[in-house]
Automatic annotation (TrEMBL):
Taxonomic lineage: Eukaryota, Metazoa, Chordata, Craniata, Vertebrata
Signal sequence, start to end: none
A single Gene Ontology CC term: presynapse
The protein's name: MUN domain-containing protein
Organism: Bambusicola thoracicus
GO biological process: dense core granule exocytosis; positive regulation of exocytosis; synaptic vesicle exocytosis
Ranges for domain MUN: 2-143, 144-184
Pfam families (UniProt xref): MUN (PF06292)
């Protein structure tokens, strides 16, 4: 199940249009069912049953931890892609100056959406959709809590690292607004 889980994640999108597939949730539920059924599946003589059963439980727990880690890594990759788009607005880059100039010039003639807000909106939609799907489709609340906790911690670490890398730069207004919307 873990290998199929990893292969499925590798084939999916790395951008904010990623949607958690039903099959990913099903694989989590297979692990939940395997843990619940392990006593029935591992029945042996009384002395051996306990030892074998605990090894199966350990294997299932390790597999679930790996699956959570893989899914969190996928979510972090998507956040890194969003932050890479925001990096285009770094102070002193030619692209940043060009974007600021074109938005100001074009806004005199037409209603121009502000750069970055579409990126923030797409990321927020991705997060909300992913959380909803996982909450609705995965049967074990403990696994979901673990997943969300790791996801939040990893995401905040990535954002902190990104901000630390720019400590000597002034954030562009669109970077700031986007980060506020993402972290909020």
């Amino acid at each position: 199940t873990r290998i199929a889980f990893e292969v499925k994640l590798q084939k999916t999108s790395r951008s904010t249009d990623f949607r958690v597939p039903q099959s990913i949730c099903t694989m989590f539920n297979v692990m939940v069912d395997a843990k619940a059924q392990s006593t029935k599946l591992c029945s042996m003589e009384m002395g051996q049953e306990h030892q074998y059963h605990s090894k199966i439980d350990e294997l299932i727990e390790e597999t679930v931890k790996e699956m959570i880690t893989l899914l969190v890594a996928k979510f972090v990759t998507i956040l890194e892609g969003v932050l890479a788009k925001l990096s285009r607005y770094d102070e002193g880059t030619l692209f940043s100056s060009f974007l600021s100039f074109t938005v100001k010039a074009a806004s005199k003639y037409v209603d121009v959406p502000k750069p970055g807000m579409d990126v923030a909106d797409a990321y927020v939609t991705f997060v909300r959709h992913s959380q909803d799907v996982l909450r609705d489709k995965v049967n074990e609340e403990m696994y979901i809590e673990r997943l969300f906790d790791q996801w939040y911690t990893s995401s905040m670490n990535v954002v902190c690292t990104w901000l630390t890398d720019r400590m000597d730069l002034q954030l562009h207004i669109y970077q700031l607004k986007t980060l506020i919307r993402i972290v909020k």
